[in-house]
Amino acid sequence: MLDQEPPLEEFTSVQRAFSKQAEHYDEDDLSNHILVEWRHQVYHHINLFIKPNSHILELNAGTGVDALQFVRSGHSVHATDTASGMVQKIQQKIDQFSLRDKLSSQKCSFESLNMVKGKKFDYVFSNFGGLNCCKDLTRVTKDLPALLNRGAYVTWVIMPPVCLWELLGIFKGKKAAFRRFQKKGAIAHLEGEYFMTHYHSLSDLKKDFGPNFLFLKTEGLGALSPPPSSLKFSLKHPLVYSLLKKIDRTVRDSYPFNRWADHIITTFQFNGNEDLR
Known about the structure:
CATH class: Alpha Beta
Strand order of the largest sheet: 3-2-1-4-5-9-8
Distance between the termini: 29 Å
Structural class: alpha/beta
CATH architecture: 3-Layer(aba) Sandwich
Low-confidence stretches: 1-9
Mean pLDDT: 92
Oligomer: single chain
Strand content: 15-25%
Order of helices and strands: HHHEHEHEEHEHEEHEHHE
């Protein structure tokens, strides 16, 4: 493991929440068929771009579920997370499967990527809205050029400001239906901890990446079908769920459904930075 960063005060609640969640994260992941299906969609998206034997930097790596998948596909991964509990779980997987030559871990916030030393990457990946804890994504993108090989890809799975499934909560009187529209962010609750969540549109992402990154593709993840948090709906109404998934597959690459979804999968390519040559 590399040197650890000093904890950022604003992320203290986030660190505590996800460290607590680490204890049951893998079990929860495997028991939620929607989440499993979503991961397959994310992997399919990445496989459109990733080259064999890529060196991947993963942000918000959690317990290493995705990192392990990438390693099994022939890539090497440096997995970072700000929660000590998550990093410990990754390290356990490294030891359990003897992956020290293919998988490394580091306690590191996505806003302190300057702490990642001596490595260049072909791909940067962050899954399932971990970056939505960040209000200003330029705090993340500013450090990427120094870490990337020219032509490297960046795929982030982000929660956007418009989610049609959540908006349906209006008809049930749910206040959360409008939470994504709050400009200052919304308060999230996880494992007894409270922290701010911020929602980023595709136009926000393009602006935050800047001119050195070329936008390539976006698609909706849960554009019309229910998210993992609505697992009970999928089990109670399997035919409706199946129909919504079918429609989802048809429209998720098209506007506005590639922008209006529970999450959006976005990919950019690094074209190089003249200042670094």
